[in-house]
Amino acid sequence: MEGLIGVAVMGIVFVSLYTGMASGFRTIRTAQEDLRATQIMTETFEAMRLYNWEQVTTPGFIPEAFTARYAPNNTNNRGITYTGTIRISAVAGQPYMVDMRAVTVTLSWNTGARARTRTLTSYVSRYGLQHYIY
Questions:
Q1: Phi and psi for 5 in degrees, rounded to 5?
Q2: pLDDT for 85-125, tens place per residue?
Q3: Which long-range contacts does 63-70 make (Cβ < 8 Å, 24+ apart)?
Q4: Bridge partners of residue 121, in order along the sequence
Q5: Structural domain harbouring 91
Q6: Cys-Cys crosslink for 51: which of 38, 45, 55, 100, Cβ 3.0 to 4.6 Å?
Q7: Whole-model pTM?
């Protein structure tokens, strides 16, 4: 009887250990994907800083859609494909709406069967940083 109870306890311990390890690996993968999404959005906004006002407000100059890949330690070109969209819109209802645009970058990707999305919004102004760079 003692042996049977010991085996049952050990079974529960091993199942718990395996579940904890699987959960930890899944959490690390999710964190890596989120970090890569943040890097892609930051890269997009850093490029946006270098455009002048005419380029930002010209329809079609900045592409509305893009893709980026993430495939760590992968030799056969598989991995996660991030699909992104850039939306530039006027800041409505503000007295400075003529001189400011809201830029929204949305990324979406799939983790297994689960669809994930992240969105980041920032602003670009006519008399912003680009005048100090050029």
A1: -65, -40
A2: 999 998 887 777 888 899 999 999 998 789 999 999 998 88
A3: 68/40, 70/32, 70/33, 70/36
A4: 104
A5: 2-133
A6: 55
A7: 0.76
Overall residue count recorded for the chain in this entry: 134
How is the beta sheet containing 100-111 ordered, strand by strand?
65-70, 80-90, 100-111, 114-125
pLDDT tens, 26-46? 999 889 899 999 999 999 988
DSSP state of 63: -
Using alpha carbons, list the distances in angstroms from residue 55 to 2, 45, 109, 129. Answer: 78, 14, 28, 14
Q: Is the pLDDT score of 133 beyond 60?
A: no
**Residue 37 in contact with residue 109, Cβ under 8 Å?**
yes
Count how many Cα atoms sit within 13 Å of the Cα of residue 39 in the half-sphere of its side chain: 10
Which tokens is 26 given? 């899944």
| 75: its two tokens | 């030799």
| Structural domain count, the chain | 1
